[in-house]
Each structure stands twice: as C-alpha cells, then as structure tokens.
Specification:
Elements (H helix, E strand, L loop, with lengths): L2 H8 L11 H12 L5 H5 L13 H8 L2 E7 L16 E8 H7 L7 E5 L14 E5 L10 E7 L2 E9 L5 E4 L8 E3 L4 E11 L3
C-alpha cells in the first residue's frame, strides 16, 4: 500500500467517514493478522461485527430494501499508481437496487464502483456531477468507443476508448473541443467499463 494511501485514511481533514471502506479493511486484516491483531478488531473499523455482517444503519436499510451499497471513488485523485480502482479514495457509499444493477451487468456488486463526472470534456454524454457506475470486472476492449474509467499518467478519467492496431489506445472526449490522447503501450490502464450514467433531471 502506498504511504500516501495510508496517510489519506489517517488524516481526519481528508477522510471524514465514520468507518473505513470494507475492501480496504479486508486488506488490513491480512496485514495486521500476521502481527497478532485480532481480525474482529480490524473489521470493526468498517462497522462489521465478528460474524462479518454489516452493522451500520445504512447497510441495514439497504438490506431491507434489497439494495446494495456501492463505494463511490474519487477517480480524479490517485493515492498510488492510479492503475487500479483501489488506488483511488472512497468518499462515500451509495445504495442501488440489486435488481436494477443485475439488469446492467452480470458482475457481482463487489466489482461495481461509483464515480462522478468532473468537467465538460464528455459533454453531452456525461455532465459535470453525473454519477457513473464502473464495472471493474471488465478490463478488455471487445467493442470500440465504449466509455471507460481509464488511468493515464496516474490520473483517472472517464473517457471513450478505442484500441488501435499497434496495441496503443486512443482516448477520446465526446466534447469536440477536447483533443484525443494517444497512449502507447503501458501509458494507460483500463480501470473498468462504465455501464450506466445516473443523472438528476
């Protein structure tokens, strides 16, 4: 884990949630477990009891409504290399209907993340503040010009991606005023495919 990631979660001025993200806490159980720390104590940092059931009020409500809580990540700010979703900080959790998510993708909820549009580079497809759902189980381009969460130069972005014959990627914005980016092999990483956009009207 990069030192900046660890520091982010310890800084009360940056991370203001009462519980740590569940995926991070499961990582920590492996680290601390080898040093004699009880797994139950570590899981409690995410609001999980000793039987591994969520005890937070939000999770209880989600279960009653047959919804799942998806982590919202700040893709514009990387805590590490920026090549995977776990390099980006979790800012909150948002409930979504389990049945509705199943209509979007076959991926389990643990592979789904939420992010928000930032700026106007993807207008009119994606507006500033729109919510996108990212399926990180999909990391291979099978259809050209789909919308992806992609990392380029360590920065996360939501863009339309085209695979080129030489193995490189062309990262396109829907806003014609924004020039395409050509990313040679190893310069860009697919974090996951955007399977839905949620917008307030």
């Amino acid at each position: 884990m990069p030192a900046s990631s660890y520091a982010f979660y310890e800084d009360a001025a940056q991370f203001k949630k009462p519980f740590l993200p569940v995926p991070l806490t499961h990582q920590l159980t492996k680290l601390f477990g080898g040093n004699g720390v009880d797994r139950r104590e570590v899981l409690a940092l995410a609001g999980i009891d000793e039987r591994n059931f969520p005890v937070t009020e939000a999770d209880q409500i989600a279960q009653q409504l047959d919804a799942v809580m998806l982590d919202e990540v700040e893709v514009g700010y990387s805590m590490g290399g920026g090549s995977d979703i776990e390099d980006y900080p979790v800012v909150r959790q948002i409930p979504f209907s389990r049945q509705w998510l199943a209509s979007l993708t076959d991926a389990p909820a643990s592979k789904l993340y939420v992010a928000r549009g930032d700026g106007d580079s993807m207008q009119p497809t994606l507006l500033d503040g729109d919510i996108v759902i990212i399926d990180r189980s999909q990391k291979t381009i099978r259809s050209q010009d789909r919308v992806w969460a992609v990392s380029y130069g360590g920065f996360g972005m939501i863009k339309r991606v085209r695979a080129l014959p030489d193995g490189s990627l062309q990262i396109n914005s829907d806003n014609p005023a924004v020039s395409p980016i050509h990313a040679a092999d190893g310069e860009a990483f697919l974090i996951g495919r955007v399977v839905a956009i949620v917008r307030r009207i």
